[in-house]
Amino acid sequence: MKETTETLTRRSFLSVSATAAGSLLVSPGRAVAAPKPLIPRVAKDFVNIYKPGPDEFTLPTVKTRDGNHTYVQGTTYPDWRTNDHTFIKDDKGRWHCFGITKPWTAGDNSHAGEGLCFHALAPEGSFAQTVRFQSWRDMPKINVGDCGWAPMAVKIGQEYSMIGSHLGRATSKDLYTWTDQGKLNAKGGNRDPSIFFWRDTYYLLRCSNNGIVLVTSTDFVNWTDPVVIYKPVKDSYDTESPFLVENGGMFYLFWCLWDRADPTTSGYTPRTYVHCSESPTDFLGKPVLTEFTAHAAEIIRDEAGQWFMSSADFPHRGINVAPLVWE
Question: Residue 189 belongs to a domain with what CATH number?
Fold first, then answer.
């Protein structure tokens, strides 16, 4: 099976560059130097494209570990927050965003209450045209399989799939109605899946506390054994929200920090690092190329080839998007 969507997102990134690393030979046995890494930067302020509206909490009642907050089934909460999310475009050219959501109360930075998946629908137009203040509207939340836990969306053939942190898979024909399909038969990692599609191969990344693990597949059914492709320099640094892209023949790994040694940080820390490599399978020892003040960043390349970065719950509640340039 081959992915046919033209969507270029964190969880479904189709690399079509003709200058991919690994083809940098000018003659047999004579290789040229790798291209110089490009430095991504946010070109303008983030725009708050989506803010969740009031909604009923439909999951079982749950308390935070410290006992200070309780989310009660059947209660309508005015404020909701977002976390890991994914963008995908449907067959009619309409953009969608799915991701973690939960009620928000002041002082609660825990994951208690998560499990539902928000669905935000963009106005009609190209991705660049949809980057307007709170122009994406709420659709009914999804509670199927594993989709409420850091989902990523990908189109395979004529069907869409959402993969959650525990590798649960839900499928859809239209991005509105979803069916639980069990779990992927893949090993390695424990959360925050991300898919990069390159040269007819799916690269599935997942975080594993202090590292990022990779498995690959050509059919989305049979997967290789897991390998660690990145480990932070500090043992207290837990990786979150990995995202892999190719640009100009080089590969760029984005990930978000959760520093267990810093009590002021939490699962919503707005610190995203970027590393560069000549290979999509090895970022070990690669230095930090740049850092962004963004959480659970997604990288999107739109219909005209323009790049964007998203950020969850920073600098504003919901999903925020800014133009991204490479220098």
Answer: 2.115.10.20
* 6 inside domain: no
d(CA 183, CA 36): 40
Task: Establish if 259 belongs to a structural domain.
Answer: yes
With a CB cutoff of 8 Å and minimum separation 6, the contacts of 293 are: 270, 271, 272, 314, 315
Counting beta carbons within 10 angstroms of the beta carbon of residue 79, is it exposed (0 to 12), middle (13 to 18) or buried (19 or more)?
middle
- Distances 253 to 72, 229, 240 between C-alpha atoms, Å: 38, 10, 12
pLDDT tens column, 77-99: 999 999 999 999 999 999 999 99
Q: Could you tell me whether strands 13-15 and 191-198 are parallel, antiparallel, or unpaired per DSSP bridges?
A: parallel
User: Is residue 217 a part of any domain in this protein?
Assistant: yes
**What is the pTM for the complete model shown?**
0.89
Residue 8 belongs to some domain of the structure: no
Structural tokens at position 154: 């990908």
Determine how β-strand 70-71 pairs with β-strand 13-15.
unpaired
Do residues 292 and 272 lie in contact, with contact meaning Cβ atoms separated by under 8 Å? yes
Q: Which amino acid is at 325?
A: V
Residue with tokens 């600098």: 315
